[in-house]
Specification:
Elements: H1 3-29, H2 31-57, H3 62-96, H4 100-120, H5 125-130, H6 134-171, H7 175-181, H8 189-227, H9 233-242, H10 249-264, H11 271-306, H12 310-346, H13 351-356
Length: 360
């Protein structure tokens, strides 16, 4: 091996490394666009069965079917937003029933204790508060308003982008597939195309299964809350059901939230005889619903739609949570399912892959 060959190899390796770094930087800079595409792809998968029903059963033109599906999705989103407004107002009214004078006295006592503690350390809290430049604090208000307006602007752009991309993904179901295949070498294009079809079917079933799971929990929670005459029962039930999209952690947060909201809905009644027993009974019913979900709904959704063992799902969700937090827990199962299908297509003879993908 000559020095020229070694030099060429080093240069080639450096070029590859630089290319990967540039690609990573480019993907980092356009991460918002990637998120828009992923959300649009998920929405198109969820809307696909309904579009097929409209086009094949009701003989809708494809464009009309897509517009109808998107209109229903937007209507659902708008309805959810307006559902939560009464909940916020109701909780505000409930909190207004508290004994404000007593609350103010408690806060004053706490502040006095803090002042005494810091005085013993040689720190005059009142003097430090007086030294705060109030004018400079008010100067930050425009910055806060600009931040809020910027967030609203970004949200509006994101929503319009997702809707625009979703429309074309729904209208042309092969658009995303063709876009991915342009990045795949010609010799692997056929096999990768087959993998994408399988992934598409599995994930469509998975997301439809999730919708069914949330709907079942929503109905159960609503019945429970209405039976105890809890205000805004429908909104609370929907919020707690949606939290189940976050595996393991979501149901825990939902239980705490339902317990607190059920207590705040009964503010003004006797705590020992009314508020606490009612909230405990609601929490008990919530736990029963979770047991039903864990032992009936989830095994059907995860095992049947993703073709994975429950232990696999558990480990994948935990790893996704450790690596990427809540977002990783939510996306762990779909990403793992897609990875399994691709591995089976290209590494079907591998012993580990064969063991993991035997049901696909």
């Amino acid at each position: 091996m000559t020095s020229k060959t070694i030099a060429n190899g080093i240069l080639r390796a450096l070029a590859i490394i630089v290319g990967i770094l540039l690609l990573g930087y480019f993907l980092y800079m356009i991460q918002s666009v990637i998120v828009y595409i992923i959300i649009a792809a998920i929405l198109s998968l969820i809307g696909r069965p309904f579009i097929i029903f409209l086009t094949k059963k009701l003989k809708f033109p494809k464009t009309i079917a897509v517009i109808t599906t998107m209109f229903l999705m937007l209507s659902l989103l708008t309805g959810l937003v307006f559902l939560f407004i009464p909940l916020i107002l109701e909780q505000g009214r409930s909190l207004s029933l508290l004994e404000v004078d007593k609350l103010q006295t408690n806060i004053q006592d706490i502040f006095n204790e803090i002042t005494v503690y810091f005085s013993s350390k040689g720190i005059d809290v009142l003097k430090e508060l007086e030294n705060i430049d109030v004018v400079s604090q008010f100067k930050t208000i425009p910055d806060i308003l600009n931040t809020i307006l910027g967030a609203l602007g970004s949200l509006s752009i994101g929503l319009l982008s997702v809707l625009f991309i979703s429309f074309f993904f729904m209208k042309d179901s092969k658009l995303l597939k063709n876009g991915v295949l342009t990045l795949i070498p010609n010799k692997s294009e056929t096999r990768f195309s087959k993998s994408l079809e399988t992934i598409n079917d599995l994930l469509a079933s998975y997301f439809i299964g999730l919708i069914i799971q949330i709907t079942v929990l929503f109905v159960i929670y609503t019945i429970v809350l209405l039976s105890f005459d809890i205000s805004n029962a429908v909104v609370i039930a929907f919020l707690c059901a949606m939290l189940n999209l976050i595996p393991y952690v979501g149901p825990l947060i939902g239980g705490i939230l339902m317990f607190i909201l059920s207590m705040s809905s009964n503010i003004g009644q006797d705590f020992q005889t009314e508020i606490l027993p009612t909230s405990l009974w609601i929490l008990f019913c919530y736990l029963l619903a979770q047991l039903l979900d864990n032992f009936v709904s989830q095994p059907v959704i995860f095992s049947k739609t993703t073709k994975s063992h429950p232990l696999e799902i558990f480990l994948v969700i935990v790893i996704g949570g450790l690596l990427f937090g809540v977002l990783g827990m939510i996306t762990a199962v779909p990403c793992y399912t897609a990875l399994k299908v691709i591995l089976k297509e290209f590494l079907s003879e591998n012993k580990i892959v064969k063991s993991l993908t035997k049901d696909i």
